[in-house]
Each structure stands twice: as C-alpha cells, then as structure tokens.
Amino acid sequence: SKKVLQGLDLMPASMTCGDGHLGLLERGPFGGIIAAACAKKLPKAWKKQLAEQGVIVAPIGTITGQHLFRWQKQQGKLSRKKVMGVRFVPLVRA
C-alpha cells in the first residue's frame, strides 16, 4: 500500500484497519479523508476530525443507490458536492 501511495505522490499517508465510523481521533485533525466503503450517511467522527480547508471524498448511500461526494471544511462548515453515481461495498461496524 505504501508503495502505491508513494507512486501517487500521496505521502505521508497511512492506512488503518478498524471501525471506520469512529475515525482516528488520536491522529487527527486530517487534511483529507478518503473512504473506500459506502456509509449510509457521513460519520460524525469524520466531520469532527477534518481540519480546516480539509477534504473528504466518500461514497454515501445504500446497496440500491450510491453517490460519491466531496466535502470541504471552510470556516468550520462543510460544503458538499455530488461527484457521480458509484457502487462500493458497505461500511460496516467492527
């Protein structure tokens, strides 16, 4: 994984295995959060752990309909933009 991230010039970055709904409070705030599984709604922990000017890219929806969204935090508020329809595995609780 690290080699792929380095090849994409996305270092320093990290990947963690755990309950994604909870985020990583001890390591935030984050300048960017990218989700590889679909939540029914944006987890509250992610909103709290996003740094000012930070970006979240995540699929939101259900098994019958999902969209990729991009959020950006500006002056403490999140703005949301719908990017495209997608199909991801569900984000499940650990």
Summary keywords:
four-stranded mixed sheet, 94 residues, 13% helix, 40% strand, Rossmann fold, 2 helices, mainly beta
Q: Mind summarizing the main beta sheet?
A: 4 strands, mixed
Structure class: mainly beta
Number of domains: 1
Global morphology: globular
pLDDT < 50 stretches = none
CATH topology name: Rossmann fold
The CATH architecture can be given as 3-Layer(aba) Sandwich
As laid out across the biggest beta sheet, the strand order is 1-2-3-4
Q: Please trace the helix and strand order, writing H or E for each element.
A: HEHEEE
SS elements, strand count: 4
Radius of gyration using CA atoms only: 13 Å
CATH superfamily: Vaccinia Virus protein VP39
The DSSP helix count reads 2
- CATH class term: Alpha Beta
The span between the termini is: 22 Å
The helix fraction, in percent, is 10-25%
Describe, in plain words, how this protein is organized in 3D.
The protein is mainly beta and 94 residues long. It has a single domain (2-86), classed as Vaccinia Virus protein VP39 (Rossmann fold), CATH 3.40.50. 13% of the residues lie in helices and 40% in strands. Strand 2 (50-62) and strand 3 (65-74) form a beta hairpin. The longest helix has 6 residues, at 2-7. The mean pLDDT is 88.
